[in-house]
Amino acid sequence: MSITSGIVTEADLLDQLVTDGQPGLSAEAARAILGLRFSSAAVARMNELAEKNRQGILSEADRAALEKFLRLGQFLNIVQAKARLSLSASGISDN
Length: 95
What we know:
With about 100 residues, the protein is mostly helical. It has a domain at about 40-95: Helix Hairpins, CATH 1.10.287. The chain is built from 4 helices and no strands. The chain has helices at about 10-15, 25-35, 40-55, 60-90. It is flat, with a radius of gyration of 17 Å. The relative contact order is 0.18.
C-alpha cells in the first residue's frame, strides 16, 4: 500500500524499513540494532501478562500493555531483519 494515500497501518510503515533498494545500515549501526534486547524486568512483565492472558484474567489495562509489548517486539524484529540484511549485503556475518 502507498503510505501517501488511504488508510496507513503500522505494517505499511514498517514495510518501508525493509524495502529493497534502500541504502543499508552501516555495520556499526546494524550491530547496535542487533544488540537491542528487552530488559529482564520487561521480559518478566511480558511473561506475567502472557500467563494472565492464557488464564483469561487479563484486565483491560494489562491487555493494552501486552499489545504495546507485542507491537514493540514486532517492530524490533523488523528493524533487526533490516540490520541482518544490511550486514549480509555487505558480506559481514551478523554473529
